[in-house]
Design brief:
This protein is mainly α and 134 residues long. It has a single domain, classed as Zincin-like. Helices cover 46% and strands 10% of the residues. It contains 6 helices and 3 strands; from the N terminus they run ααβαββααα. Helix 1 crosses helix 5.
């Protein structure tokens, strides 16, 4: 992953590109249900989101799925907002620096995990899905 202009940290556009690339690598049965997924990138989760998640430290949340899982949707949900995956840039950058794992791998991990919530998958299923995306 290249740094941003003038050697800065990767920016929002870099994160969005890596997240979209991770989505395109998902197997067909999943990919066909992702056209409406919105990818958002923010530096940190806001205080309201952290409180709702029971998280005290803004550095501890790297991504979040907003929406109703497909397993809980009905035909009456058509007017609801599209599902969204939000990546939190600063915590991901910190994890990238601390772990030495590539930024692409970290973003893929978070995107796959959050997309797993969209499909109502277990953690075990999410790990298997992530393995198929690598």
């Amino acid at each position: 992953m290249n740094a941003g202009p003038i050697g800065g940290a990767p920016g929002i556009a870099d994160f969005e590109r890596l997240a979209r690339a991770a989505l395109t690598r998902l197997p067909t049965p999943f990919a066909q249900h992702l056209e409406d997924i919105v990818i958002a990138v923010e530096d940190f989760a806001d205080a309201e989101t952290l409180a709702a998640m029971g998280i005290e430290n803004e550095w501890d949340l790297t991504g979040l799925y907003h929406g109703q899982p497909l397993t809980e949707q009905s035909v009456w949900d058509s007017a609801s907002m599209p599902p969204r995956v939000t990546l939190y840039r600063q915590p991901l950058l910190a994890e990238w620096c601390e772990t030495g794992v590539t930024l692409e791998a970290l973003i893929t991990h978070v995107v796959v995990h959050e997309i797993g919530h969209h499909f109502g998958l277990s953690d075990e299923d999410m790990h298997a899905l992530e393995d198929s995306v690598r």
